[in-house]
Design brief:
The complex is a heterodimer.
Chain A (H helix, E strand, L loop, with lengths): L3 E6 L9 H12 L5 E6 L6 H5 L4 E8 L7 E6 L15 H12 L4 E8 L11 H4 L2 H14 L6
Parallel strand pairs in A: 1-2, 1-3, 3-5
Antiparallel strand pairs in A: 4-5
Helix pairs in contact in A: 1-5
Chain B lengths: L2 E7 L7 E7 L5 E8 L5 H4 L8 H6 L6 H16 L5 H33 L10 H7 L1 H22 L8 E2 L2 E2 L5 H29 L13 H6 L6 E6 L11 E5 L5 E6 L8 E4 L8 E4 L9 E2 L2 H7 L6 H11 L12 H21 L18 E8 L2 E9 L5 E7 L1 H4 L1 H15 L7 H14 L3 H4 L8 E6 L5 E6 L2
Parallel strand pairs in B: 2-15, 6-11
Antiparallel strand pairs in B: 1-2, 1-15, 2-3, 4-5, 6-7, 7-8, 9-10, 12-13, 13-14, 15-16
Classes of the chains: A alpha/beta, B alpha+beta.
């Protein structure tokens, strides 16, 4: 059985930025398998590389900008295609995977699941279009961890 | 024509700021300013809130060192309650504060400054980042991650959350420590000691020029000589035994020669010996030691200052390192480049101290909070945050509602010295109006050595990039360099 980590990140006080946080909490109530670890945090930091390297599958959940609010997107992350970058305080999922590869020699099969945000204002709730997308998002994450086949080298 | 250079945004530090360098007609740096351009105003927004909310409200000032604000806020609230805090609660507060020291110092050294230290100040900026450090020295990168994890785990185990925990309350802490949590932390101590010793050895060896043997002969010679290598006072908390103490003690002030200028000053009487000056070009205030006046009363706080003011650390391995550190100078160690070195010694101390505190069986005592209503209308809480001495001062009305607050933040204490440091490094490295990357990076690196937290010090939101501007003698900006 593959081991999976779900990382939902964002600021719970900044509206739709907390999509990952709310989605991870929702998934905590749905996932019973001990092979799945669910983690929430405000932002991604390098120490997550050590954690991620222990898993076969990683799913990052975040809010995105640009599309119509409530648009769901699932993208597989290929760390080899990520250009060099700088770091000040926070990282993106690709950077975490690069750290994992360089420092621990392990990279899980990874996906980024996003929903386009409507508002990043000061509030503890998600906007309606983003909140309405949560069931579809959690289904998508469950499909990923249930169907991804990991071939170990 | 005279000019000004502006560096904006400043990178690899916490918060928003910029630097302006003023050059005379001959292209020589005349003056330098570190502008903090963000503002938050926490003192004002807490007015009208119940004083018991203050620790967790103040923790929101910062995502890096919320525990320091929790500690200072809770200590101020303890004074308002006027009760004896249970000994176990004090020990637990000490442990979580030390956990934060470890994670914050590791962030500063391994994540933010390592690119300068490992790759060199003149490395191409496209490659001078944490990812190049991973490739150049993966062991060191893994060590930084483990130390951060260890510090964060202590905070999470004791307080339930890594960021903005609310476990420290007026009167103590909300929950005792369990045996399982204690054993989990203790199990990692030997590994952490090995890690920090390995990195102390690496740092010391990196200071030594090839073929030499003394720490005083360094390949960072120019940086050591010019990174805020200044005559100044040093200020911080020292406990009754003259040892390093991040939680409690009395204020000691030491001068550049190492002489104690003032000792056993009551922290709650800070306004008798510290005053804050406001300059129109920065949101960060300029505290100074009152008896010496402004700006002669410039003092430094934080790791370098703490190691300069104490008699000893109080733990075996850290004391051995302190002896070697003290060998750098006959008096106080003056170069702010050595903040990095001091930070590593403090991590070692914190690991040893956590071991001592957790190994005492009384740490599992379940009496961890004192219950009382407000018995005073005023309270002052002082603690050592990663970046230096932190003061919280609250006044309440008869209903326990906050009427007034004053915060002197660790980073703010270093404001005068940071400005002097920029001037010193710019005078040495900046020649003419042509901006070269190595110069720009050294101007930033002197600020990084202090590890300022501008979100804390101005109580402002955000990230911190840096921006350099050239301004001529009539105040016109003639050149500008900005990083995004």
């Amino acid at each position: 059985m593959s081991r999976s980590i779900i990382i939902g990140y964002g600021n719970p006080l900044r509206g739709d930025d907390a999509l990952g946080y709310h989605a991870a909490r929702r998934l905590s109530g749905l996932v019973k398998s001990t092979n799945v670890t669910i983690h929430t945090c405000h932002q991604l930091t390098p120490e997550l590389a050590a954690e991620v390297s222990k898993f076969d599958i990683a799913v990052f959940i975040d809010a995105s900008v640009g599309d119509m609010p409530g648009t769901l997107a699932v993208t597989q992350i290929d760390p080899s295609s990520i250009p060099n970058r700088t770091f000040s305080h926070q990282l993106d999922p690709g950077s975490i995977l690069i750290c994992s590869q360089i420092l621990y020699g392990q990279v899980p099969v990874s996906y980024l699941v996003t929903v386009s945000a409507d508002s990043y204002g000061y509030m503890e709730d998600l906007s309606v279009p983003v909140r309405n997308k949560l069931p579809e998002l959690t289904d998508a994450v469950l499909r990923i961890i249930g169907s991804t086949r990991v071939v170990r080298g | 024509m005279s000019k000004t250079i502006t560096i904006d945004p400043l990178t690899r530090i916490e918060g928003h700021g910029k630097i302006s360098l003023h050059l005379n007609d001959n292209g020589v740096v005349n003056n330098a300013y570190f502008h903090v351009t963000q503002f938050r105003g926490f003192e004002k927004l807490c007015e009208g809130r119940p004083f018991r909310e203050m620790p967790s409200l103040m923790a929101r000032i910062c995502g890096i060192c919320p525990v320091a604000h929790l500690i200072a806020g809770a200590k101020a609230a303890d004074q308002i309650l006027a009760v004896q805090i249970p000994k176990t609660a004090v020990a637990l507060r000490r442990i979580i504060n030390l956990g934060q020291i470890i994670q914050s110092h590791a962030l500063s050294f391994f994540y933010l400054s390592a690119p300068d230290l490992v790759l060199g100040m003149d490395k191409d900026p496209a490659e001078r980042n944490i990812f190049s450090v991973l490739k150049e020295n993966p062991q060191m990168a893994r060590d930084g991650i483990r130390l951060r994890q260890f510090g964060q785990t202590i905070i999470e185990l004791l307080a339930g959350e890594r960021v903005h925990p609310s476990w420290i309350i007026a009167g103590g802490v909300s929950e005792p420590c369990t045996q399982e949590k204690r054993d989990t932390i203790l199990a990692s101590i030997p590994e952490m000691q090995k890690i920090i010793q390995r990195n102390l050895d690496w740092f010391k060896s990196s200071l030594i020029e090839t073929g030499k043997s003394s720490l005083r002969v360094s390949k960072f010679r120019d940086e050591i000589r010019t990174f805020a290598n200044l005559q100044s006072l040093f200020l911080g908390l020292v406990n009754d035994a003259g040892e390093l103490d991040f939680y409690d003690g009395k204020i000691r002030v030491v001068d550049s020669s190492g002489k104690i200028v003032a000792d056993k000053l009551e922290p709650s009487q800070y306004s008798e010996y510290i005053e804050e000056k406001v300059e129109k070009w920065s949101y960060m205030k300029f505290p100074y030691y009152k008896p010496k006046g402004y700006p002669d009363g410039m003092y430094r706080v934080g790791p370098l200052a703490r190691l300069n003011i104490i008699d000893r650390c109080g733990t075996p391995q850290a004391d051995l390192e302190l002896t070697e550190f003290r060998g750098l100078s006959r008096g106080s160690v003056l170069s702010s480049f050595y903040y990095h070195y001091a930070r590593l010694i403090e991590i070692l101390f914190a690991i040893e101290k956590i071991d001592q505190l957790l190994s005492d069986q009384s740490i599992l005592d379940t009496h961890v909070k004192a219950i009382a209503g407000p018995n005073n209308h005023e309270g002052v809480g002082v603690a050592e945050a990663p970046r230096g001495t932190l003061f919280h001062h609250y006044k309440i009305n008869q209903d326990g509602i906050m009427q007034w607050a004053n915060l002197i933040i660790a980073t703010g204490n270093n404001n005068l010295a940071m400005n002097k440091g920029i001037l010193q490094v710019a005078k040495h490295f900046v020649k003419g109006e042509k901006i070269e990357e190595g110069m720009l990076n050294r101007v930033e690196a002197v600020i990084r050595a202090f590890d300022p937290c501008l979100s804390c010090s101005t109580h402002a939101v955000g990230k911190m990039p840096l921006h350099i501007e050239f301004i001529n003698s009539v105040g016109e900006v003639v050149n500008r360099l900005q990083r995004s």
